[in-house]
Amino acid sequence: MKAVTWHGKRDVRVDTVPDPTIEQPTDAIVRVSSTAICGSDLHLYELFGPFMNPGDILGHEPMGIVEAVGAEVTHIQPGDRVVIPFNISCGHCFMCKEQLFSQCETTQVHEHGTGASLFGYTKLYGQVPGGQAELLRVPQAQFGPIKVPHGSPDERFLYLSDVLPTAWQAVEYADIPPGGTVAVLGLGPVGQMSARVAQHRGARVFGIDLVRERLEMASRHGIEPIDCTATDDLSAVLRDRTEGRGPDSVIDAVGMEAHGSPVAATAQRMVGMLPDAIAAKFMEKAGLDRLTALHQAIEIVRRGGTISISGVYGGMVDPMPMLQMFDKGITLRMGQANVKRWIDDLLPLVSDDTDPLGVADLATHRLPLTDAPKAYEMFQKKSDGAIKIILEP
Length: 393
Ligand SMILES: [Zn+2]
Ligand SMILES: [Zn+2]
What we know:
This protein has 393 residues and is of the alpha/beta class. Helices cover 26% and strands 19% of the residues. It has helices at residues 39-46, 94-97, 155-158, 163-174, 189-200, 212-220, 234-240, 276-285, 290-300, 322-328, 343-351, 372-381; strands spanning 2-8, 11-16, 28-37, 62-69, 81-83, 135-138, 146-148, 181-185, 204-209, 224-227, 249-252, 306-309, 331-334, 365-368, 389-392. It is globular, with a radius of gyration of 20 Å.
């Protein structure tokens, strides 16, 4: 089969590799019909060489048709249409019973002290072959795959793999009071969807970014866009619109859709993912290094408010403004999405033909799987208005 493989910094290829097979009675094989590129795939593309081997198959946002199942897989069968959550969880351990599926004790990677294994994501997360391929072996398939109806386009359901549950959890963790306000920092795919989910649930939403296409997309969905390069004082702009207090909650989705790494000392280098002119401007004005985004969230949230982090944070040395956090009485929540926990909330929304979350308006590019090298480059440079790219095997 054909698969998108990692070969080094900014070097992904489409290789022919052996077809996966059922190895455990809890496995399934899925023929992939759509598979998205995630912001966190760019971290592999740019930064994670030491934790990758040449030939590793990338991707953790796939869906498709079940081709085969092991003996212990009973809730799906060949021919079913399924979405595959990015975290691999068993459904029966202590953590899974607590619905903390991103911490599954069956698939935790003890060697590196990390949480549940992920598809297509480095030795830190189990080095499980990923879903940017024609076929995918799904471990723990007795629990993970989400069965969806046949008929409507893949995009209706594809984002259940990561973007939507990550956004939903970001909003849950933001703890926005009824009728309250939230600022979403960063309007990549997770920021877009976090903003729409918050609005769907009754909040007034400010969306903050510096890329024109992203601000335009947000305003198409009723989000109040704020171009952070157009102001020297984001806090003041937000206080003006919130009776002088600042938003009740802030969702930090900068650099986002990302699956954290405990060793990524990458904050400043993330700026390297933007086109130079934009990066320079951002550094000048608002600063896009990850820590700056968090500091900004702490600055803008109202006293007693909540910050929900769905961006990547890594390293042990990040200094935190503890005095300000304590003085303002801020609550901080974070963590990787526990995908299946939110599916009962999300499935009715994506199944609704009125498309209340606007899932049909997120992908900017659909390309054949064989164009993956071009797609990664385009996504990395954010060229051609790229916000979300879907590959079709
Ligand atoms: Zn992702
Ligand atoms: Zn588990």
